[in-house]
Amino acid sequence: MPDLPFSSERYGPAERRMAQALVALENRILHPRPTEDCACRQGMFPGLSRRGMLLGGALLGGALVARPARAEAPPGAIEYPVQPDPTREQGRMILDDGGYGSRSQFENEIRWRYPTASLDSSWSMTPLASGQGIITPSGLHFERHHGGIPNIDPQRHALILHGMVDKPLRLTMDDLKRMPSASRITFIECSGNGLTEWEKPTLRTVQGTHGLTSTSEWTGVRLSTVLAEAGVQDGAAWILAEGADAAVMTRSIPIDKAMDDAILAYAQNGEALRPEQGYPLRLLLPGYEGNTQIKWLRRLEVGDKPFMTREETLKYTDLLPDGTARQFTLTMDAKSVITFPSGAMQLPRPGFYEITGLAWSGRGRIAEVEVSADGGKTWAKAALQEPVLDKCHTRFRLPWVWDGTETVLQSRCTDETGYRQPTLAELVQARGTRSVYHLNAIQSWRIAQNGEVSNVHA
Amino acid sequence: MSTPRQSPLGSALALAMALFPLAGLAQDAAAPRSVAPLPAELPDSGEPTPPSPVVADEAAGTPGLDADFGIGRPATAEEIAAIDIDATPDGQGLPDGRGSYAEGKALYDERCVACHGENLKGIPETGGPALIGGRDTLAGDKPLKTVESYLAHASTLYDYIHRAMPMDAPGSLTPDQVYAISAYILGRAGILDETAVLDRETLPQVRMPNAEGFTADPRPERL
């Protein structure tokens, strides 16, 4: 398929097939059928009409999605009649939603599934373009599974901690909730975020290029508390974390990280973890690549060496041009992206716009975000919106007047260690284009004269 | 492994469980515990009662993260053995058993071929990746990462097949079967000859072509 991206010989057939399928999917969602009446098409946001969205959602699922009781509503919403004048009649009764709550029927943001060949092993992306503040709604947190989403009864789930400890422990969920709790707001990013963008601009939207990062408040028990309870022996250096999913997903974690800020998390954004985020228990490793933060956590084994599991050898290693690969590249480097305006939007006319986006670093707080509205020739310091937290999405904003000429918008961030987000050219110079993971380069959005925003390498 | 501490609350606990036989409390009821479980919710109080986080008796320890909480209970050797399935490069964790190339071929044709193909080169439609081939491609324009070309340790192959394969019935293969399938794949990869037998002694000695292919993370000092 020479007319599509990924024609480069450097991509393997599986990567090419996946990426092409996602490109096709994006096109399908972004171009509603001709019969569709979509008033927003000339507006700033792409034509994500409800029908187009629902069509996309059904296709994403790969099968017919179970229809909600009131079928017309988007996922997570209930369809109610719109009142001609809500001041002239009583509104609907309390708890009509069953006591949990639902979003407005007029809001339809959803995660997109990356169309891998197998539904059991896939990922979905957070719609960053419409996000506000720094918290990702739990229902929009990106997902990456390696063996589907297990359905686990918390009363039958336990965590076993063993290996180089004085006292191997078995902890039920009740046990863990009895221990002193810790809570923090932190991002989780998949190290594959942006893997389609190494060689050429490929996906059109920021959801496609950057949607594998999300932020939540996570609550649980400090792993150091539990390790102290068990008594870690001299010589311990690594901990194997293992999930109770069909992949029995495993990663080796340096014990220094475990003792520093790791959390055994049972809650997300004030309620129990969502099943797709590891219910009832996941490992949280602030600033580390997402796959290390084992979900459905069932076992921790303390050892003196890394365990060399499949996910840290065959996968999640970064191949360099000389044929060697970096291993245990665990920390996510500083990264930022403009979410508005971003790919597949259209600016309706010259004038004032507030540029906004997200910046984050796995090594600490964001110290500074700069924005360029001229393709990197000049940079202006953006305002950082509070709160600015350690290893957390940070919202930045910058007022901007578009004069109607073609230009390129970029953002770059610096974290508190002094590390500054690289250009793509710098990154490719150091690592080539085949390392798949850890692309944290500056993102460029081109504004065309007609206001169309597109993904470019600039 | 230490002995469980005696519970001063044991009898009260037993009474509580008799009154409120909730599934979660019954779960570990047989095991000695030194700390009370979470407060139980009274049945049908008629009014919403949020579970209280207040602990009646924490006198034993100083509040703080370094306290010895006495929470949980010792994991038994049987409980650990039941899920301690990892195998590491030095051979630790490899179980008893053995398997040959010939046995592995028969098993592969039955359990693996649908996704990974008769030639072990993978089947795109199923997402099943190639298992062999790709040697000397890692520095080229089309790197092919397979067991043969990329994996550094044979233990990783055993560990992963045992824990997660085959896709339609993960965890269903016996140690003998996993040794045999590993021998078949490594044989087809040209890493072992077809007479080789794998077991807990021989598998860690397999020398993988890419054993020296991995380096430590140089970041953040280098990009």
Describe the structure.
The complex is a heterodimer of chains A (about 450) and B (about 220). With about 450 residues, chain A is an alpha+beta fold. Chain A is built from 7 helices and 24 strands. Among the domains of chain A are: about 170 residues, Oxidoreductase, molybdopterin-binding domain (Sulfite Oxidase, Chain A, domain 2, Alpha-Beta Complex), CATH 3.90.420.10; about 120 residues, Immunoglobulin-like (Sandwich). In chain A, the strands form 6 sheets. In chain A, strands 5-4-13-8-9 form a 5-stranded mixed beta sheet. In chain A, strands 6, 7, 10, 11 and 12 form a 5-stranded antiparallel beta sheet that branches. In chain A, a hairpin with a 7-residue loop joins strand 1 and strand 2. With about 220 residues, chain B is mainly alpha-helical. Chain B has 7 helices and 4 strands. In chain B, strands 2-3 form a two-stranded antiparallel sheet. The radius of gyration of chain B is 26 Å and the shape is extended. The N terminus of chain B is likely disordered. Chains A and B meet through helix 1, strand 4, strand 5, helix 3 and helix 5 of A and helix 2, strand 1, helix 3, helix 6 and strand 4 of B.
